[in-house]
Design a protein that fits this description.
327 residues, alpha/beta, TIM Barrel, 7-stranded parallel β-sheet, two-stranded antiparallel sheet, 12 helices, 18% strand, globular
């Protein structure tokens, strides 16, 4: 392993193999190995979109379409562009469907790993780290469409079968990438939402033990409960772990909205946005662990007045993160 590139946690910082702090700045590869409707424009989950195309095009043409889509979505030119922007990190969301069929649980498909390999290698050759993000888990880890959930019920938290499959998949992923220094780490569940708040803590402890039995080195990037805004299930931090808040501000995702201004009966300005950020990152600051914002930012609509407010919100958030030493 190239020790200089390998990342680890040292106090409240992420550092490379020589102990130099590394500030991970990048984007998420949304819409690729998990398709989200606000990216694709299709009003439904990925599975619904795939079924619709198969019904219209036929199975063979639909398979050919998705094969081309998954190959062309991210190519060398895209990696070159990210590098030209000075980005050093790409979060790679993926669905379990690429690795396992529901009709054949625990039987993993090599093709899913090969797709990840290609993007990891394209990024590594340009000095860009990747963070592997299980965005859609079997049984749905949250109630919303971005976990490919058409039911609004997170079955993952009440059926151990689904939890067993996620542990099994992460054991395989950790085994495959444990010696790859350009994989910054593993983001085992995107935006979990355990309604009881009682299952997520023990599950994370189990998952941490399982991954560490295979790979003791790579950083774990753990999302909090309630869509990565609540970290109350944690007491003492795990070793080599970063706790990853998602910091969407309501003026950036509600429509209509104003910023600064009132949105759904609540006034928002920079002070309110900063207060919310500090609430969401209290666990990290109290335990002296790194703060990494896995997702944030407004949604742009093309309306000049609203988008101007969105840019103002984005500027305020970036300034807040810099003020608080956020990775």
């Amino acid at each position: 392993m190239a020790d200089r590139q390998a990342l680890s946690v040292l106090g409240d910082r992420i550092v490379n193999g020589t102990g130099e702090p590394v500030l991970l700045r990048g984007v998420g590869l949304g819409g690729w190995m998990t398709m989200e409707n606000f990216i694709t424009g299709y009003p439904g989950t990925e599975s619904q979109q795939r079924r619709a195309l198969s019904r219209v095009l036929g199975a063979d043409a639909s398979d050919a379409f998705f094969e081309r889509f998954l190959t062309d979505f991210f190519a060398e030119a895209d990696a070159d562009y990210l590098a030209s922007l000075g980005i050093n990190c790409l979060r790679v969301p993926f669905s379990y469907h690429h690795f396992e069929d529901d009709a054949a649980p625990f039987t993993l498909k090599e093709q899913g790993f090969r797709r990840l390999d290609r993007v990891i290698d394209l990024c590594a050759s340009r000095g860009i780290y990747t963070i592997l993000d299980l965005h859609a888990a079997p049984g749905y880890q949250n109630q919303n469409w971005h976990s490919d959930n058409p039911s609004h019920w997170a079955h993952f938290w009440i059926h151990p079968h689904f939890q067993d499959r996620v542990v099994h998949l992460w054991e395989a992923l950790a085994d495959r990438y444990r010696d790859n220094p350009w994989v910054a780490g593993y983001n085992p569940l995107n935006e979990p939402a355990d309604p009881s708040g009682e299952v997520i803590g023990p599950f994370y402890a189990r998952l941490e033990r399982a991954i560490r039995a295979v790979d003791a080195r790579h950083i774990l990037f753990l999302d909090g409960n309630r869509y990565s805004t609540d970290f109350s299930m944690f007491t003492e931090p795990f070793e080599q772990t970063v706790y990853t808040a998602h910091d969407y501000a309501l003026p950036g995702i509600a429509n209509p909205s104003r910023y600064p201004g009132e949105v759904r009966g609540t006034y928002f300005d920079r002070d309110i946005v900063e207060r919310t950020f500090l609430q969401r990152t209290e666990f990290m600051r109290r335990t002296g662990t790194p703060i990494w914002i896995g997702e944030f930012g407004p949604i742009y609509t093309g309306d000049p007045e609203r988008d101007a407010d969105c840019y103002r919100l984005l500027r305020d958030q970036l300034e807040i993160y810099r003020d608080h030493g956020t990775s």
